[in-house]
Structure formats: structure tokens, C-alpha cells
Amino acid sequence: MFPQRIAEKLGPLFSFKLKRTRHRSQPRPLTPAKRPSLSPPLSTLLDNIASTSRSCRRWPPQNDAIRFLLYWIIIVGTCLIVFVFFALHMTVRPSQFTAPRAVPYDDPFVPDAKVVSVDPVSRTIIMNWYPELVDQDCDVNNPVIVDIFIPTILLDVSSPSYSSGLSDQPVIRVNSTQICFARTQTYISFRTVTKLVASREYLLAQEIGTQRTFQSYPFDIYIAPFSFYTQDVQTGVVKALRISQSFGIAVNFEISLIDTYLAWSSDPNLQFYLRIERSTATKSFVVIVAITNWITAITFLTILASTLVYRPHEIYSEMFVVPVGAVFAFSSVRSNLPGAPTGFGKSSLFSKYENKY
């Protein structure tokens, strides 16, 4: 006991020695001798099998590089597949129509139509026409000279062949001699600027108040009426023209043939109507922008409502950064929309009241 009292007075420096000596002084318990086993126990084998199966089923792998590569392939591949799917359905296809579709014709010249551009603001469509000589029998003594006509009422004042007179003026005179015996390859063409009719349906005989206007963007629809006939300069015979094919794309617009009419009366002529509307890509883009604007506005109003309910320390100023910034950003998106009108427009209630009564 004497060494123990000395250690208590001197401090903890000797306490650990005392504890060691005390533990050494205690007798060790007798344990039976272990026999060396030639094979591991069954429990160890089961644990090893379970750990191996868990490591095989571990997904995703623990390596960051492999995980990044797998996630990148999944995300980029999914976005690429979705983009290709929608791109194939939203591409603007060139116009392909013939007018009339299947009617025999004997006119020596057949033009090809090419769509150049569509201007819904000025209500005009610009098209190039390329007459081709169908009758390859080039006779010097008896050339074929034909005038191609379009009714003046369908032409815009900016059209090269527009005339303010009552009678129709030929848009071009085609001579077979120039095509057959030209020293160089000639490409005869003429351009027309015709008018568009704003219409909600295919019918043209509608009241002005019920027709679809530019205010319906991007779901505005227009009708382009055309009428052609030819006249032989030598014989004076009037015939209806036939459009062999069409090509060309009007940017942000889709053009399709509605109907054709071939008149065999005293004044034969070909009449056909084209339906012009916004492309699917333009409509989708405008709708997505509008939905995004509404989602941003709803988010901002939700945050404002939460400030009236929850305590101030639970509302952070950073919550208002994205909605407020998006409000100012979306105000400039309208000017970048393809073919969007400059203003929002309005409908007059007084005019409706006057028409009603």
C-alpha cells in the first residue's frame, strides 16, 4: 500500500505505471488451446459470397470518371433522340404541287413555280416562274410565240407586270425561236408579286370582320389565289396554262395546294389556291416561350404570397433574383420571335356594336 500512497501524492505521472503493474499482477484467465483449422468456417464463406454479390450489384460504379461518362452518355443521348424526333416533324418542306393535278394539256409552254418569300405585313407573296418548252419541234418558219397573262386584280402594285389599266397585260412573251436556236443556254423567267387574302377557313367569300388577321400570330392563315392563261400571238387562241412542278421554301412558312379549277369556257384559264401558314417550328417556339413566361409569372406570384404567410427570416432575398430577372429578360424575347408583329393590336368594341345594331 505504501507505493500506492506515494503515487497518489506525486500525481498522475506514476498512476499509469501503477495501473500497468496492477494489471500485470492480476492472473490471466486460462483459455483452451486453439487447434489449427484446415478450412475456414462456413459463416466466413457465406460472408464473402454476400459481399461479392453486393459489389457486383453496386450501381453506379464508385469511380467518378466512369460515373460522369455514363451520365453524360445518358443525358446527351436522350436529348439528341428527342431533338432528332421533333426536328424531323418540324422541318419546313419545299412546296411540291402541280396544277391541275391530272388533266391533259396541249400548251407548248409549261412553267415551273418557285416560292421566294411571303410577307404577311404587306399581304404579298413573291414567286418566280420558269416557262419550259414542251414541244421540241423547232420550226424556223413557224415559230411559237405565246403571251402569258395574269389578271391585274391579283397583282400587287409592286409587281413588275402590274398595270392600272382595265385590260390584262402579258407578264412575259415567250418565243420558241429564242429557246431552240440560242447560242447559249437560256433560262426564261418572270417574277410576280400577288396579293394574299387573310382567311380563317378555305372560303374566300367571308366578311372582313370574320377573317383571320395578323393579330392571330402564330396561327394566322392566308390564301394566295392565282389565275393563268396564255394567248397565241399569231392565232389569238386563248388556252389555260398548266404548272408542271413547284419548288422553293418561304422561310418560317408552309405552303400547300388547296384546290385547282380549270375553266373551259370562252375564256379558258387555270385557277388554283395556295394555303400559307406558319411553320410547325415557329408555332412550337412561340408556344414554348408563352408557357415559360406564364410559369415565371406564377413562380413570382407564389413567392409574393409566401412573404405574406411565412416569417421574414424564412424568406431570402435570393429567391426574388431569378423571377425578377426573367421578367426583364422576357420583355425582349418578343422582338426576336420569327415574324412577330411589332405591336399587340386591339379589336374595336364600338365597331362590333355598330355592326350588330
Topology:
Layout: H1 2-10, H2 15-25, H3 42-56, H4 64-90, E1 109-119, E2 124-133, E3 145-149, E4 170-175, H5 176-180, E5 190-195, E6 197-198, E7 221-232, E8 238-240, E9 246-247, E10 253-263, E11 269-278, H6 280-309, H7 321-330, H8 349-356
Parallel strand pairs: 1-9
Antiparallel strand pairs: 1-2, 2-5, 3-4, 3-7, 6-7, 7-8, 7-11, 10-11
Protein name: Transmembrane protein
Keywords: Membrane, Transmembrane, Transmembrane helix
Transmembrane segments: 69-88, 285-309
Q: Mind explaining what this structure looks like?
A:
- The protein has 357 residues and is of the alpha+beta class.
- It folds into two domains: 64-92 and 279-340; 109-206 and 213-278, Acetylcholine Binding Protein, Chain: A (Distorted Sandwich).
- Helix content is 32%, strand content 22%.
- Strands 3, 4, 6, 7, 8, 10 and 11 form a seven-stranded antiparallel sheet that branches. A four-stranded mixed sheet has the order 5-2-1-9, with no helix packed on it.
- Helix 6 packs antiparallel against helix 7 (321-330).
- The longest helix is centred in the last third of the chain and has 30 residues, at 280-309.
